[in-house]
Amino acid sequence: MLRFAAQRVASRALRPQATVFRARQCLVANFGTTIRRQNAKDPSKPGDAVLEEHKKLQSDWTAPLVHYDTVKAWSERPSFDAYLIDVREPDETIQGIIPSAVTLPLSGMSKSLHLAATDFKAQHGYEKPLPHQEIIFYCRSGKRSQTAADIARRNGYKNVKSYDGSWLDWVKREQSPSSSS
């Protein structure tokens, strides 16, 4: 008899937690379903456009590539409407950077893009790029510049590109005899 009483007390002690947990699962599962059903009934809701834009920003994507000739032209004619951004770390940029480029290390890029414009300028020394401005990212070999372009795109920047050969290509072409003409 005592054994049965102990089992009932133990099962009652566990039951509310299990019920709450199951209720949360149902709420989460039903919440997603409910949202989808509501949107399917009335696709003209203003929230749908926001959700679609969010899906586009979060989808897999590869930045368009630019080559040496484009970057060379940018470095010779800098503009306030376009940015050439080096995403290498500070210890790597000691080797040099492309003329007219600014630095924004990949390790802190996402955090920096969320800063207010004044805080961004105070931290990096130049104006924060606007979402519509053209940006070309480069790194050492081209891998991190693709990641940087993806991060920028996911943060609302629409006109981002990646320099295909990046720093290694730049140095090779600048040191070649044909580029010194």
Automatic annotation (TrEMBL):
It comes from the Eukaryota. One of its GO terms (cellular component) is mitochondrion. Residues 78-179 form the Rhodanese domain. SUPFAM superfamilies: Rhodanese/Cell cycle control phosphatase. Transmembrane segments: none annotated. InterPro entries: Rhodanese-like_dom, Rhodanese-like_dom_sf. Gene3D superfamilies: Rhodanese-like domain. One of its GO terms (molecular function) is thiosulfate-cyanide sulfurtransferase activity. This is Rhodanese-like protein.
